[in-house]
């Protein structure tokens, strides 16, 4: 298992968002996390990615305990081992497409020339080779999400976390974005955990888990949905 969550609980004030949720994810797996609105999907994803710490329970990544790690170590691990794609790309609008994709490399002290060369390679793979010089504020939704995918993958993460990555796109564009995301993840051997409401997005996954009332109803591979 690359990621394991054991009996995760997390509340916001009086709202119990996760109630002893379990989940196990295999390396290289593409996992869709589905379930009703407000059931705890995003909270689960944020706990797995070490963005939130759970109130109780354990999160393991590659045999290391994530939830009890120091903030500094967890932040470093998140930067190097994890990639993120959210509903709205969260690109820096004042920067160009190439700048946005090169940014994680530059922050990781990769030399400028190499960072831009690697960014250009990823943009090419995502069919964005022509758009490197454009400001990201001037992209279509589908183009922006493809840039966000390039930026998330440029450091070669072990796990890509995606929260409604196609939520702001029309269905055809959304399918194209998912096709690219899943195709690249498979080529790279990247594990993908994608939260989605959309059955067409989930159809790209190897496995689907359902979150209900803060619990994962079928947390382990091979288990039927209850
Ligand atoms: N910052 C917050 N403050 C208070 N309550 C919150 C906060 N974030 C989430 N919640 C509550 O926690 C519960 C789980 O929320 P979460 O966002 O994890 O659900 P979700 O399944 O991702 O929902 P959606 O599909 O609508 O995005 C909900 O009842 C929600 O209202």
UniProtKB/TrEMBL annotation:
It comes from Nonomuraea fuscirosea. CDD domains: ABC_MJ0796_LolCDE_FtsE. Residues 3-225 form the ABC transporter domain. Coiled coil: none annotated. This is Putative ABC transport system ATP-binding protein. GO terms for cellular component: membrane protein complex; plasma membrane. PANTHER family: ABC TRANSPORTER RELATED, IMPORT ATP-BINDING PROTEIN. SMART domains: AAA. Signal peptide: none annotated. Keywords: ATP-binding, Nucleotide-binding, Transport. Pfam families: ABC_tran. The keyword Transport applies. It comes from the Bacteria. Gene3D superfamilies: P-loop containing nucleotide triphosphate hydrolases. GO terms for molecular function: ATP binding; ATP hydrolysis activity; transmembrane transporter activity.
């Amino acid at each position: 298992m690359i990621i394991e969550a054991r009996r995760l609980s997390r509340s916001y004030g009086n709202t119990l968002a996760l109630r002893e949720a379990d989940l196990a994810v295999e390396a290289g797996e593409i996992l869709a996390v589905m379930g009703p609105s407000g059931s705890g999907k995003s909270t689960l994803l944020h706990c797995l990615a070490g963005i939130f710490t759970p109130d109780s329970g354990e999160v393991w990544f590659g045999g290391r305990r994530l939830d009890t790690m120091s903030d500094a170590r967890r932040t470093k691990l998140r930067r190097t081992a994890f990639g993120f794609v959210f509903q709205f790309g969260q690109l820096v609008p004042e920067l160009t497409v190439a700048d946005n994709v090169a940014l994680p490399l530059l922050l990781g002290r990769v030399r400028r020339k190499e960072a831009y060369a690697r960014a250009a390679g990823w943009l090419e793979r995502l069919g964005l080779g022509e758009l490197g010089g454009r400001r990201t504020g001037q992209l279509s939704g589908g183009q922006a999400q493809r840039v966000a995918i390039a930026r998330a993958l440029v450091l070669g993460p072990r796990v890509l976390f995606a929260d409604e990555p196609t939520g702001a796109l029309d269905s055809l564009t959304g399918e194209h974005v998912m096709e690219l995301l899943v195709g690249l993840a498979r080529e790279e051997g990247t594990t993908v955990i994608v939260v989605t409401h959309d059955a067409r997005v989930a159809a790209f996954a190897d496995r689907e888990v359902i979150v209900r009332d803060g619990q994962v109803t079928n947390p382990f591979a091979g288990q039927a949905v209850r």
